[in-house]
Amino acid sequence: MKLLRLKPGHGEIVLAEGDVEVPDQERELIEAFRRELDAGMWAAVPTESGDGRRQAELVKSFADVPRDAERVIFFPRAAGGAQRTAR
Amino acid sequence: MPLALGTAAVVLLALLWELARPRLIDAWARYRSLRAASARSAAAIGYDPGRERRAERRARSLLRSCVDEHEWAMYRDLGFLRVWGGLAGRAHASEPPISATEEDELARRDPWPQAGAVMAGASPDARRPTGPASYAYLIYPHRPIVAYVPETGALLSEYCVAFPDHSRPYGSARLPDSDDVLAKWMALTADERRLIADANMHLPGRQIDPDMVSRDLRRLSRWERERRSHAVSEIKLPA
């Protein structure tokens, strides 16, 4: 599993990578996951349904991440955009 | 006596000022040059076109790996993504494939083919709804999300939403374009209600030109027709 973060001026960066079945690596993944959530990030897991439809799932704890997920993507939380009127 | 003391104090202050003045002037000059250098380096960080291009290339690659092929092709060719609205609780189950003749008939009857019935077998758009879509969104990079009625093309509202990274790693809080689109796509497909609640809603035309959106909807319609006819011709070829 890879934990990725979207970053301005860079694209995604790999925060942590490991096998959730290996306790040490899972612990590192959990710590990195918590750090990002504490920093105010949203976490999403891209998924694909049986009929090929792709979507994402927002997760709030590492326990919510499917064990077979390949990636968790962190991105800054949504905020109401600019109120400007210029087109 | 008080007069003498007062005079002495004034003289002392004047002497101290004269002694300290060069140092104070130096310190002020250093402070100003530091501020200017910091502003210059921030500006330089913010406008590195090479770095921004590389970031955008990575972001496009990630977006491509997350959305399905039809959505990726849409973004690549048209510069925006369409996401079907899900709040109305439509079913997404697939229907049996229909024939090319039926598809042509549907395309003739339906001026907004993206809102029509699904062709699970022939259509490359796996997210296409089974029934008439009550609404859908257009996602543009760094612009508001536009909600519209697929059946008529009528614009409903603009949802102004941003994903600012306040750590500003390279002097800017803005994600690369494709990462912004990906963030909107993930948030919309995962929790549409929450994203819409967090956004600032405005009537159409506040930030995005409605004529431009109408043009984009016509481009999308034409693009999907061409892709569909291409897919149908590919299906017919083996026979």
How are the elements arranged and paired?
The complex is a heterodimer of chains A (87) and B (239).
Chain A: E1 2-7, E2 11-17, H1 23-38, E3 41-48, E4 54-59, E5 71-76, E6 79-80
Parallel strand pairs in A: 1-5
Antiparallel strand pairs in A: 1-2, 3-4, 3-5
Chain B: H1 2-46, H2 49-66, H3 69-78, E1 81-84, H4 100-109, E2 136-139, E3 145-148, E4 155-162, H5 177-198, E5 200-202, H6 210-236
Antiparallel strand pairs in B: 1-2, 2-3, 3-4, 4-5
- Helix share of residues of chain A? 10-25%
Order of helices and strands of chain A: EEHEEEE
Main sheet of chain B?
Answer: 5 strands, antiparallel
Report the count of strand segments of chain A: 6
Report low-confidence residues of chain A grouped into runs of 5 or more. Answer: none
Shape estimate of chain B: elongated
Give average pLDDT of chain A, whole number: 91
- Give the domain tally of chain A: 1
Oligomer: heterodimer
Radius of gyration of chain B: 30 Å
Computed Rg of chain A: 15 Å
Unreliable residue runs of chain B: 88-124
Helix share bin of chain B: 55-70%
Largest interface: A-B, 34 and 58 residues
- Secondary-structure element sequence of chain B? HHHEHEEEHEH
| Main pleated-sheet profile of chain A | 5 strands, mixed
Counting helices, strands and paired strands, the structural category of chain B is alpha+beta
Could you tell me the strand content of chain B as a percent range? 5-15%
Largest beta sheet: strand ordering of chain A = 2-1-5-3-4
Separation of the first and last Cα atoms of chain B: 119 Å
Mind explaining what this structure looks like?
The complex is a heterodimer of chains A (87) and B (239). Chain A is of the alpha+beta class. Chain A has one domain. Chain A has one helix spanning 23-38, and strands spanning 2-7, 11-17, 41-48, 54-59, 71-76, 79-80. In chain A, β3 and β4 form a beta hairpin. With 239 residues, chain B is an alpha+beta fold. Chain B folds into 2 domains: 1-46; 48-236, no CATH class. Chain B contains 6 helices and 5 strands, in the order αααβαβββαβα. Chain B has helices at residues 2-46, 49-66, 69-78, 100-109, 177-198, 210-236, and strands spanning 81-84, 136-139, 145-148, 155-162, 200-202. Chain B has a 5-stranded antiparallel beta sheet with strand order 1-2-3-4-5, with helices on both faces. Residues 88-124 of chain B have low confidence and may be disordered. Chains A and B meet through β1, β3, β4, β5 and β6 of A and α2, β4 and α5 of B.
